[in-house]
Amino acid sequence: MRDPLALAISAAALAFTTTALADDPKQGGTVNTIVQPEPPGLVLGMIQNAPTRVVAGNIYEGLLRYTTDLEPIPQLAESWDVSDDGRTYTFHLRENVAWHDGEPFTADDVVFSADVFHRELNPSARAVLQHVESIEATDEHTVVFTLTEPFGPFLLSFEAGTFTMVPEHLYAGTDFRNNEHNDHPIGTGPFKFANWERGTVIKLVKNDDYYEEGLPYLDGVNWHVIPDGGSRAVAFENGTIDVLPSGTVENFDIPRLSEMDNVCVTEEGHEYFSPYSMLWMNNREGPTADKRFRQAVMYAMDREFARNVLWNGLGKVPLSAFGSNARFQDDTLEPYDYNPERARELLEEMGYDGEEVTILPLPYGETWTRWAEAVQQNLREVGINVRTQATDVGGWNQRLGDWDYDLAFTYLYQYGDPALGISRTYLSDNIAKGSPWNNVEGYENARVDELFNEAATAYPDSEREALYKEVQEILHEDVPVGWLMELGFPTLYRCDVKDLVNSSVGLNEGFRDAWLDR
Amino acid sequence: MSFFARFAQNRGALVGLIILLMIIAMAILAPLLFPESPWRMVQRPFLPPLSQEGFPLGTDTMGRNVAAGLMHGAWVSLLIGLVSTSVALLIGVPLGAIAGYYGGLIDDILMRFTEFFQTIPNFALAIVLVAIMQPSVTSIVLAIALVSWPPVARLVRAEFMSLRNREYVEAARLVGQTNTTIILRQILPNTLSPIIVLASLMVATAILLESSLSFLGLGDPNVMSWGYMIGAARTVIRQAWWLSFFPGVAILLTVLALNLVGEGLDDALNPKLSRER
Hints:
The structure holds two protein chains of two kinds. Chain A has helices at residues 4-22, 50-56, 107-121, 123-129, 168-171, 229-237, 253-258, 291-300, 303-310, 340-350, 366-381, 393-401, 418-422, 446-457, 461-478; strands at 30-34, 64-66, 72-74, 77-82, 88-93, 132-139, 142-147, 191-197, 201-206, 220-224, 243-244, 263-266, 276-281, 357-360, 386-388, 407-412, 481-486, 491-494, 497-498, 515-516. Chain A is of the alpha+beta class. Chain A has a domain at 275-486: Dipeptide-binding Protein, Domain 3 (Dipeptide-binding Protein, domain 3, Roll). In chain A, the strands form six sheets. In chain A, strands 15-14-16-13-17 form a five-stranded mixed beta sheet. A four-stranded mixed beta sheet of chain A has the order 1-10-9-8, with no helix packed on it. In chain A, helix 11 (366-381) links the parallel strand 14 (357-360) and strand 15. The radius of gyration of chain A is 24 Å and the shape is globular. Classes of the chains: A alpha+beta, B mainly alpha. The interface between A and B is medium-sized, with 24 and 22 residues.
């Protein structure tokens, strides 16, 4: 008797080969997409905001890329070795790489980018570089980073947007910010800068000399600038635009657009950033200073409802301080389910007297306003006396920076590793007035500080894991902030744009492998 | 002819009055018919009207009962309309009375001050005021009052100017009444009828202003008002027409009713004028 399983497998294998054949990439074609808002400039490393990253990530490259599981894969570095003590990282560079102006890319460019350019201009790279003792080019294609002590997330720091390789021969010894080449960025990426009609379109064209044989398939990518959200949705509907990067249309337009023929949606491509929405709770004063109150807030919020209704079912209800894409997440913690009864008990236990608590929505558009209304109602239903304060972006920044709030919405990037994106929210030495991005809630716990700091430089990973497990348990109990949602940022595209999102930064470098089945 | 008979002669005014009474009834009955907060998410989002019992007007983007919002919104709209008009009268009437009664330099100063407010577009000024003070019922009432008092001052001033040299005023002066007494007891009562007519129209304008502010997201985020409902629904108008339609109709009817009543009051209070018409 023939084994039915084996039959099924061979049938599946056959099906796989045929589809693989049918999906053989085609050359040519230009993709039209959106950049929103128009970026202030395109020199990555000098500017790191989202619109710059999404366009310039196709012009510039880093040493490494990251899979959707945040595993490093080669980009400009072909391979790398880590010494046993975790202090020496040796990168072996590709040998056939040229800048868009024809000059060869060498180890000197890496040293210049890291040691000079980023140290001067790039705060997030600087935070990593403080662990680096020296950067040396041992030959034309080998670079050695020596660290002062082991730093766990080091290999995760080489993403193109954060650790961009810039050409030494054009920038060395110049005033970086006023360099004439800033208007015509030169990188090593699959696309070259063509022209930029301000307020209208940024055009990139294929780099014929790209080092990956056959890539890119596309002849070019046009990034259109359309300031109005409604018009962007219409442009996609009528076919002018092939790809809508996440955040370029309002959430409520997404179901309508995604139901159109030949439209695909993906939530992938944000694993590296993993935007994580939180509710700041002022740990310093008022009812929110009481742990039981903060736990009550967690139980009172119907986060499933918010996910299903406000975010159209996209995103994930988080478990705790570490998002599901973060390394070392402890998924054995007891989730804070929607449980108004438990919330009322906790409030009773702490003797909450109905003191008014204000809530500050994030002024980023309709979805966030509605969300604040939903949370406000959730909290009222368990007996918390909430009042919403409407504000604009400036007011929001100022209130959080001055710690003048009780509850406030925000979202933060996680950058894959707890030491890069998570610890900053809870470390007490990261409490400083004036910024809405640090330890705004004012949480102070010596043990948490100790564990986070130890874990950042512990080696190997099993050591880190144990330390982070303990940290997560403490944070889960203390609820320094409310964990609202691991945001799902969907990308909409015509289904005949193939292989668009294939790494953890998604569209930021997606056109490298994309092709048009037309 | 009695006051009401004169009022009722204007059919439109009667219709307006009936609509207005219904809206007032809505506002009063809201807490009885819908004791739960209108912000409460009670059903599946986007239920169309009449599709489910208890939700005659459907539910909104978050599953809140539109009918409850509409009823509670009536209260907010009327409250803001009435209070802000009263505040505007409290500013406009004294300023206009003093300017009109004393004339001369005082008049000049007060009128230049009034013109200063009149030259700035109402709505723009209201937006700026609310944005500065942070949106809340109080700040909205104040902003609306601050942009709507100049016409009152103008009207009262004109009335006072025409009345201040009448015989009965001269007589009061001869008797030795103080200026304050003359203003309050002799002239002001005689200017009441145009003020009442103007005030009824101002309530309508105030409701519109509040709706516009809420529509732009400058409403008090803690109260459900009609303008807020439309503002929140405008982005989903292609999916759910009823979310903006019903509050829109409510605003239309209320403003229309107030205008009709205002006209009726004008007829009733100024019978000579209306007969000439």
